[in-house]
Amino acid sequence: MIPLPAGVRVWLATGYTDMRKGFPSLALQVQEILHRDPLGGHLFCFRGRRGNLLKVIWHDGQGACLFTKRLERGRFIWPSPAEGVVTISSAQLGYLLSGIDWRHPQETWRPTSVG
């Protein structure tokens, strides 16, 4: 997991993105489509057409970072383009990167003691 400083937001680029793009092209997409500053310290996530590949760009104040994750099975849960710009919490990012539905994570049932 990426150690996120306090106040950092996580933005999802809805729809799908050409996964051949690197940091410069994705940063341009952040500026033109999301209307955000890609060098502002926030994380921006992009998903490929198949849904099993995710790229995250982040400028940590010292340099540009590009993280990539491919799921061996399943797909990343992603908002539709109609939902517009979507921001999630760092906890939801953890679920997303694990392939878990970040919109509705379920708690496991725990038995209560009888007494």
UniProtKB/TrEMBL annotation:
InterPro entries linked: Transposase_IS66_Orf2
One Pfam short name: TnpB_IS66
PANTHER family linked to this entry: BLR8292 PROTEIN, PTHR36455
The name this protein goes by in its record: IS66 family insertion sequence element accessory protein TnpB
Source organism (scientific name): Bradyrhizobium niftali
